[in-house]
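BUG-333 | component: ligand-complex export | severity: low

The export step for AHG jobs runs without errors, but we want the raw record kept on the ticket for reference. Input record follows.
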Amino acid sequence: MYTLGEFIINNIDEFYYSTESILRLFSSIKLASKAIHKEVNKAGITKKIIGSSGIKNIHGERQKKLDNFAHKTFVESFKSRNVVCGIASEESENFIVIKNEKKDYYGNKYIVLIDPLDGSSNIDVNVPIGTIFSVYKRKSSININLTIDDFLQEGIRQILAGYVIYGSSTILVYSIGNGINGFTLDPSIGTFYLSHPNMKFPKKGKIYSINEGNYDKFSDGIKKFLRYCQEEGRNRPYTARYIGSLVGDFHRNIIKGGIYIYPKTATYPQGKLRLLYECNPIAFLTEQAGGKASDGKNRILNIVPKMLHQRTPFFCGPKNIVSKLEEFIINCE
Ligand code: AHG
Ligand code: MN
Ligand code: MN
């Protein structure tokens, strides 16, 4: 059985950028996710984790203690490894600059965009939560200050994307653009083992995942699509499953076959999910697993971001069903 470290080394030739960088990046991601795994598993017995931190984040959402802990843990872990020059996080209004301490050495060429804790509303109730991460090469030269443009890159330019799900077990799933693979943490020795090689969306998925409590606020196209999912017919009706953690819903849908749907609503006229921290990395994984990710009309990975905390409608899953949803949206305009 491969460990994550062995797997990376055995496939290192497929990483277009430097070998050392990928090892440093993964060393940061593994350490931070193990620290979060440990805290999540103590959630019932320590007040450090459950509940609100008492502050609101940039999105006006009440930040949970674990949001804050996860943000700090990832930032510290990336800081100490001299590979990342900037981090933009869902939990921080502005991007964070990381200086390279050894100027003659290597240069920190990579940009991280991260949702440190996805599914915050599920922290206190023992339901799967996650971390979503995404890595880009900086656009500007390493000798000048970072600019916002280093962070506002199209998703297609990601060189590494993935998530960690803290569920019945902790699983890290990632892609460097040559397929996607999942690794389960053996907590007794703190090692991730390859458990989900070459993940692909099943062709015949039967799940749709949407917060149907917002039904009245959906457009006609979305309402008609839901009706389509619910009707009897070839390969239908679909069955509904919704956790309320994108990472959890996506992880189930890629294994069992299903579409994730977060459209515009009256409350969130631009959609709720964040393009840079949530949609782009999940869209990258979706395409690498043979699926499709769309905002209803456009490929998510082609959207040119204008702001760090930009939101977008988001639909991802097997190609045929996402295309079907797009038809409903376009026909109802
Ligand atoms: P976060 O916890 O990072 O703010 O993300 C929550 C997101 C996403 O994970 C989830 O799918 C969605 O919000 C759930 O939204 P609703 O509660 O509106 O269904
Ligand atoms: Mn999230
Ligand atoms: Mn979050």
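Assignee comment: Attached the raw record above. The chain has a mean pLDDT of 93.
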